[in-house]
Write a structure and sequence with these properties.
258 residues; alpha/beta; seven-stranded mixed sheet; 12 helices; 24% strand; globular; disordered N terminus
Length: 258
């Protein structure tokens, strides 16, 4: 099993977000309008948002008139989502009591890697109505040129273990797609990417970094030193970090009749 496949077992990281719930809600990006339109076009009557966090997926769906239920393991994250009008039930998805409810659409934004790769796909398939869709979403953004090189040097000095993940590499499909296909419950599994770009200043970049679990779980003195140096590097590059990225999505659809 690869590191990516087993990351769900690191519950210290998986459940570390409550301490930065407000910051997460403010600085983490939402999702492209094109993707939201794609989800709306599925015409779901009832949507479940797994690991809903503060509502980054659920809020735009609710704003478009969909009925959305969130399930979230962290009470502080759930409380922020509730303030946005999302109905949230507390619990880890694998052990959450669905009470016999089923859904036309199940989403999970930035969270499926925290779900057990054997239990999660099987339960999601069971909870989908015929012809229902599971949509797994990840945002990623890449830096280029001297800024990337200078930031890599900072990580190499102050947090070398994070160099491969320093700017949240995209999730490729090998492990997740294979796990979904292995269930034998899905009629189709495919991936799509929705491109976007963004420019963040040093404050925004550092604040966003501080909401990632690999940074949250660093010792406080190491995290403070790292983020201080990251801020300095971005300020030295005109106080702009230009991201070219996108949203990577896995769509898995169950058959019309189970």
């Amino acid at each position: 099993m690869s590191t990516e496949d087993s990351v769900h077992a690191d519950r210290g990281r998986a459940e570390s977000f409550g301490s930065v719930a407000e910051q997460y809600d403010r600085y983490r990006p939402s999702y492209p309008d094109e993707l939201i339109s794609h989800l709306l076009a599925l015409n779901p009557e009832w949507t479940l948002d797994i690991a809903c966090g503060t509502g980054k997926v659920a809020v735009p769906l609710l704003a478009c008139g969909l009925a959305v239920l969130g399930v979230e393991v962290d009470p502080q994250m759930a409380e922020v989502a509730r303030r946005h009008g999302i109905i949230v039930e507390l619990g880890a998805f694998e052990t959450w009591d669905d009470d016999g409810r089923t859904f036309d659409l199940i989403t999970c934004g930035q969270g499926w890697h925290w779900i057990d790769p054997e239990q999660g796909p099987q339960k999601a398939a069971r909870l989908l109505n015929p012809d229902g869709t599971l949509a797994l979403l990840w945002n990623y953004g890449d830096l280029f040129g001297e800024l990337k090189s200078d930031l890599d040097a900072v990580y190499g000095k102050l947090a070398p273990a994070l160099v491969p993940d320093a700017r949240k590499q995209r999730h490729d499909d090998d492990g997740h797609v294979a796990a979904l296909k292995a269930t034998g419950q899905f009629a189709s599994v495919h991936t799509e990417k929705y491109g976007w770009s963004a420019t963040l200043n040093a404050e925004e970049w550092v604040a966003r970094l501080a909401t990632h679990s690999d940074h949250i779980t660093l010792p406080e003195d190491q995290r403070t030193a790292l983020l201080t140096e990251v801020r300095k590097v971005i300020e030295a590059h005109g106080n702009n970090a230009e991201l070219r990225g996108g949203t990577y999505v896995i769509f898995a659809r169950v058959p019309e009749k189970k």
